[in-house]
Amino acid sequence: MIIDFLRDLIFKQQKMTDRGSIQMEFAVQFRGAGCVADINKTLSDAGTVTIDADKGSVLIETSLPWLDIHKRIEATGRRAVLTGFGGQSAVAMVDHGNELTNVRGVIRFCTLSSTPGQKGAVVDGTIDGLSHSGTFQLNVHECGDISAGCSSVGDVYDSSPIRSDENGRATIRFVNDRLDVNDLIGRSVVITQPAEAGAQEERRLSCGIIARSAGIFQNYKKICACDGVTIWDERNKSIAADRDREAAPTASL
């Protein structure tokens, strides 16, 4: 009982929304006069919203996870793509070393202060493919060497607990006062499962290199340089991939 109480307390603190509000920018496909009203309505309790329908931009200052904002916008029938996240930002695509687990996701880091050297970061993201309603660790490791998968990333630099829901998804949004975003570039994120009875080490499920990412008003891309398609084609490809993952059987971790 005491262990359960302490565990729940940790995760409630992890999801606090009274600090760490940051700005997020979304490119949105506006159609018709009712679009602005619909989006304002769905985001009315989420934060401070600024909409520029001519540019197809929705800017919000919020303490909610980016995925929650994204879902609300797309629930109005409009496609949306996250194009800017906070000020000094970094991102890790967590999709390496997961051949046996299929655990994958995206973790973003955004600085809390514009003062050089002042620590503190918002950690925001999602991880899919985990066992249902389980406890895991989001570890930042010393280096970004994934030449040998998740085993060549060095020692743990920082560690935070995360928890999956009944569908095996961890929705992550918390403030970490120990991290300096500028110091994270080139390191790696590893998602691990705590060691079971009789095992000496936790199991590394998936990992990714932390790279610099676009902040607010820093990403004006409409065409993806990697393959020449529009951001909306990329969004359609992402939706198809999400559906494939949902249809696939969940691995037992």
Automatic annotation (TrEMBL):
Annotated InterPro entries: SOD-like_Cu/Zn_dom_sf, SOD_Cu/Zn_/chaperone
Molecular function terms from GO: copper ion binding; superoxide dismutase activity; superoxide dismutase copper chaperone activity
Annotated keywords: Antioxidant, Zinc
Protein name: superoxide dismutase
Top enzyme class: oxidoreductase
Gene: 1270080
Claim: Zinc is one of the keywords in the record: yes
GO biological process: removal of superoxide radicals
Reaction(s) this enzyme catalyzes, per UniProt: 2 superoxide + 2 H(+) = H2O2 + O2
Coiled-coil residue spans: none
Superkingdom of this protein's organism: Eukaryota
Source species: Anopheles gambiae (African malaria mosquito)
EC number: 1.15.1.1
